[in-house]
Design a protein that fits this description.
By secondary structure, the chain is of the alpha/beta class. It has two domains: 267 residues, Rossmann fold; 102 residues, Orthogonal Bundle (Rna Polymerase Sigma Factor, Chain: A), CATH 1.10.1740. The chain is 31% helix and 14% strand. The protein has eleven helices and 13 strands. It has a nine-stranded mixed sheet, sandwiched between helices. A two-stranded antiparallel ribbon has the order 3-4. α9 links the parallel β12 and β13. α1 packs across α2, α3 runs antiparallel to α4 and α4 crosses α6. The termini are far apart.
Length: 397
């Protein structure tokens, strides 16, 4: 079943779709903020490259991003939207050339929507380590070969440093809001802790201040599954003619199981057989077919190495690392905070958001969404999430 073609990695000169690009060669020097050019490409920075928490480095980073709305003259109306593990910069808009899937948060972004593009300039970048335009393992290195196994270990904090460098390139000194769910919520929280002067409001959905043992266990099993695929080739499969599709598909199935709720899966599938198949005769249960379907879908649009790199970043998430612990780190937050939990979330259970709220400033606004969808509720519960975003953006500091 492993594929002989590579549909998963966006790589120049592929058609860009709605993507714009910034080439970064280091954090901006003092007073050196860029301006988005007509072509959407700028190069700004110290020229010293990026050295990451794990000790690895990259000389340059290309960031793919999309924007909606108009940036005010004083650049004060910008909102940063941060995607989850397998998302990308295409937060809203149709599928089409350059974009295999429609926007993952289309109900939230647009004229008159919660993130109103008639009022705000909305920016969504593809994350460092991803596979849809931003530098990741599938990107060609200076020697003309994909980074593959040579791509450095990165953390959530490293990803946010790149997002801050993007903001510098766009000339945005302070975001009106930073919004994210799941892995995007980790990055939004890291913005609040690491760049308190650069985010007026921060909305964190379905995440916690650190990775738990339960989350690390699930991610580690997914990583092992990919690495054990016979076509993984130590991470250097790009020129081998085959990709580790099976390993990635099973990893996604493990993830999909954790994203949904026990009660929902029981109600939807129970012990039903898949169509005319008979499990007693080697056929599949409906839940097996469901997980295989989601795995196969992801394997056609995502890169296995990126899945590993980003999963490792999830496991390393800890806002308290090097800051005196989680409580000390969260005490320094000055942004107007909104924390959102999903009542049925078993991957990032409600107690993690409750802990966050208990450690953040007393003005933090806390909302719980009663959803049957488990962790995926942060993507699927459009009506309550829109209401929460409107409140967060309109309320006074």
């Amino acid at each position: 079943m492993s594929s002989t073609s590579d549909h998963s990695v966006w790589r120049a000169p592929d058609f860009p779709g709605y993507r714009q690009f910034v080439q970064l060669d280091g954090e901006a020097s003092e007073g050196d903020s860029g301006r988005l050019s007509v072509e959407g490409i700028v190069a700004r920075g110290s020229g010293s490259g990026f050295t990451f928490e794990g000790g690895g480095d990259l000389e340059t980073v290309s960031v793919a991003f999309e924007t909606w709305g108009t940036l005010d003259a004083d650049r004060s109306n910008a909102i940063l939207v941060l995607h989850a593990l397998t998302g990308d910069s295409h937060a809203t808009g149709p599928a089409g050339p350059g974009h295999l899937t429609p926007g993952w948060w289309s109900d939230m972004i647009g004229p008159g929507a919660a993130l109103d593009t008639g009022r705000y300039f909305v920016v969504c970048p593809n994350v460092l380590g991803g596979c849809q335009g931003t530098t990741g393992p599938g990107t060609l290195a200076g020697d003309g070969r994909p980074y593959g196994s040579r791509f450095p270990l990165i953390t959530i904090r490293d990803q946010v440093r790149i997002e801050a460098a993007l903001a510098d390139a766009l000339g945005i000194a302070r975001w009106a809001a930073v919004v994210g769910g799941s892995m995007g919520g980790m990055r939004a929280l890291e913005w609040a802790v690491g760049y308190p002067e650069r985010a007026e409001r921060v909305v964190v959905l379905a995440t916690g201040a650190y990775a738990t043992a339960d989350q690390i266990a699930l991610a580690s099993l997914q990583i092992r599954t990919i690495r054990n695929d016979p076509y993984f080739a130590g991470g250097d499969y790009y020129t081998a003619g085959r990709r580790p599709v099976d390993g990635l598909s099973v990893a996604r199935g493990i993830g999909q199981y954790s994203y949904r709720n026990h009660a929902e899966l029981e109600q939807r599938f129970g012990r039903q057989a898949q169509a005319a198949e008979e499990p007693l005769q080697g056929g599949r249960f409906a839940i097996e077919s469901y997980l295989e379907h989601h795995g196969a879908k992801l394997a056609q649009r995502f890169d296995a190495n990126s899945y590993i790199v980003l999963s490792e970043a999830l496991n390393l998430h800890d806002v308290g690392r090097g800051r005196g612990g989680v409580a000390a780190a969260l005490r320094g937050v000055t942004a107007q905070m909104t924390v959102v939990g999903i009542a049925s979330d078993r991957l990032y259970p409600l107690q993690l958001q409750e802990e966050l709220v208990g450690l953040l400033p007393a003005s933090t606004h806390f909302e719980v969404i009663d959803s049957a969808f488990g962790h995926d509720g942060f993507l699927l519960e459009s009506i309550p999430i829109a209401q929460i975003l409107r409140y967060a953006l309109d309320s006074s500091s």
